[in-house]
Amino acid sequence: MKTALITLVAAASALIPLAASAQADHSQHMTPARAAAPAPAATTNGVVKRVDAARGDVTIAHDDIKNLGMGKMTMTFRAKDPAWAKKLKEGDQIRFAADMVKGELTLVAYEMVK
Ligand SMILES: [Cu+2]
What distance in angstroms lies between residue 81's CA and the mean position of ligand 1's atoms? Predict the structure, then answer.
């Protein structure tokens, strides 16, 4: 976790000189800051189809995910907290948020729908 954070900070600071030389417009300086602290993703309805507790993967049949530009489909996400893959089970209806985390499509938050 600590290593990942350092990598992210290093990557973000490496972007600043590039942005400054290529673009004199100071409004561009907001971009690296937003990348380091992403806004919470929008929530989407989904049904759990399969859970791989050992890998921490959850397969979800989901509605449109606007922040990822996805339509309705069934696909597998990496659970941000691997413990979630032990709590969730096939057939669970959830509202969830997904985002790209370290290059992987990740389930970043969810709540049960009754
Ligand atoms: Cu998808």
Answer: 19
Within 45-97, residue ranges assigned H as helices are 84-87
Displacement of CA 99 from its chain's centroid (Å): 2
CA 28–ligand 1 middle distance (angstroms): 30
Would you say 60 and 96 are in contact if contact means Cβ atoms under 8 Å apart?
yes
d(CA 73, ligand 1 centre) in Å: 5
Place of tokens 């696909």: 75
The Å distance, Cα 27 to ligand 1 centre, comes to 32
Per-residue model confidence as pLDDT tens digits over 2-58:
555 555 555 554 444 444 444 455 555 544 444 444 555 689 999 999 999 999 999
CA distance 61 to 51: 12
SS3 category, 84: helix
Exposure string (b/e) for 66-98, b if CB count within 10 Å is 16 or more?
eeeeeeeeeeebbbbeeebbeebeeebebebbb
